[in-house]
Amino acid sequence: MADSFSKKENFKKKQQKLKEKAQRREERKENNDKGKTLDEMFMYVDANGQLTSTPPDHGEKEEIDINNIQLGAAPIEAEEAIKTGIVTFLSEKGYGFITEDKTKENIFFHNNNCIDQIKKGNKVSFEKEKSPKGFSATEIRLVK
Q: Which CATH class is domain 82-142?
């Protein structure tokens, strides 16, 4: 029996795929990078941080004074203990938020931490304390 048209087309497609696969295999053999020498595979970083294939010139080294090198972590600058801000939100439930003047950060507070009676919009001074959910304000006083 004679083959149908679709069988002939499928056979042609398979033959074409085999040819393409053989061609790709030959290209891979020609462009093989596995045979490079060790020196060809090395990359160097120059003084500007760019990758180059040539080794850096050690004659251009910059002299650094040993006394200028800081060992360890940078010293932490002491923050002011008492900060100021404006009460931006105050709930009847006894909590609110203060916007700090310098950083514009919202800090939570509770009425139990208020020394003076405060209202929304009052300028207050407070101490910042780390709590499990972030920072909270304590020792809250009205600024006069």
A: mainly beta
